[in-house]
Amino acid sequence: MTLAERFIAAFRLPYALGCVLIGFGLFGTFNTLLSKFVQTSDLRQAIVAPFLPQNLAQSVLIAYAFYAPRYMRTKLLAAERSLPPFLPENERGFQEVFARVSSSRPQVFAWILFLVALLLAVSVSALFGGPSTIVLNLDPGSLLDLFAGILDVVSLAVVTLALSSVVWTYWSISTGIRRLSSAPLALRPYYEDAFLGLKPIGSLALSLASVYFGFIVLLMIAVLTSPSTPTTGDILGVGSFLFGLILLGLLLFFLPLNAAHGRMIAEKRTERLRISPMLGTLFQDPTKTISNTDSVHVLRLDMMDRKVSSMATWPFDIGIVGRLSVIATSVTAAR
Fold first, then answer.
1. pLDDT band for position 137 (50/70/90)?
2. What is the rounded CA–CA span in Å between residue 193 and residue 55?
3. Using an 8 Å Cβ cutoff, are 162 and 58 in contact?
4. Higher pLDDT, 204 or 142
5. How many CB atoms lie under 10 A from the CB of residue 313?
6. Model-level pTM?
7. Which of 138, 216, 225, 257 could be stapled to 54 by a disulfide with Cβ–Cβ 3.0 to 4.6 Å?
8. Between 197 and 227, where is the model more confident?
9. Are 18 and 8 in contact (CB under 8 A)?
10. What is the Cα–Cα distance from 121 to 247, expressed in whole angstroms?
């Protein structure tokens, strides 16, 4: 499991329920209520605060961010059943290709990197006059203040663990897809499968991208529901941070599949070159009388030509990717 999954599993609850309780309960409703009460000493405002649009959006984001790595890893395990037959070493090869997904050390590094990037984005926003969205209450004036301050620090660490786990899982599985696409796979004949047996790789990449960009959309909603008007600092800091995540998502979708794309283009070109002379011979003398044997040959060539023409050049449905690109463009424009 990833670090985010291990954190949720430590509570000994069904995983989805644990994500909801952590996102909406401990680090959502309770943390917001306590922080608001410490700031205002008004219990009514503190009770209302967790249900404001901005805080609800943040709670949904946290719950989703904890669940997303689990979902992506589940999709990877489901793909294992269809991918190993094409690998040179079957299941062992699959495990080696995607071994880094659960590695602890790079996950910790990604966690720290994400925290630094987020703090830097917020600092740039505050530097140019924007409100800081991360407030650590460390005033030791009372035991409640101290507890609220400690909870703020723990909350920041837990939230960034969830957010970084989404990015890390997407990154590590995508790099595994790149290594898989470059491996000596045993492709299926074009007349059996227009995708040459590579569609499970494309389906896995699409599933990961959908989950990742869903995360970006929720992150955008959490930012846009802020009651304050966006400032230059918000655009430079938080906006650049979000744009970087969107660009990373697009790169991690297309680049890992580039090897498979090149292989599929090469296979289609090879088959086209193979049947072109046969088609040329057929059309050299259109006035020639066609016998029954020739009719079968013509029909066979026609079927081969149609099959070659229908060969895909990417291991996924281009229409789905077009819709995904529209979503990514819309999110970028909304930023």
1. very low
2. 48
3. no
4. 204
5. 16
6. 0.77
7. 225
8. 197
9. yes
10. 16
The single-letter code of the amino acid at 101 is V
Which whole-number Å values give the CA distances from 16 to 9, 11, 12, in the listed order? 10, 12, 11
The secondary element (H helix, E strand) that includes residue 203 is: helix 199-224
pLDDT by residue (tens digit) across 321-330? 666 566 556 6
Cβ distance 53 to 152 under 8 Å? no
Two tokens, residue 271: 């088959």
> What are the residue ranges of helices labelled H in 226-317?
232-234, 240-254, 258-284, 292-309
Neighbours of 222 (CB within 10 A): 20
Determine the residue type at 297: H
- DSSP code per residue over 47-102: HHGGGSHHHHHHHHHHHHHHHHHHHHHHHHHHHHTTSGGGSTTHHHHHHHHTGGGG
| Cα(202)–Cα(264) distance, integer angstroms | 12
Cα separation, 205 vs 256, whole angstroms: 9
The H or E element spanning position 172 is helix 143-182
Q: What are the tokens at 291?
A: 């016998």
* Longest alpha-carbon distance in the chain: 102
Q: How far apart are CA 246 and CA 332, in angstroms?
A: 7
Which two tokens mark 202?
């494309």
How far from 123 is each of 10, 118, 167, 224, CA to CA, in Å? Answer: 33, 9, 22, 18
* Position 169 confidence tier, pLDDT thresholds 50, 70, 90: very high
Q: What distance in Å separates the CA atoms of residue 21 and residue 19, rounded to the nearest whole number?
A: 6
pLDDT at position 289, please?
Answer: 53
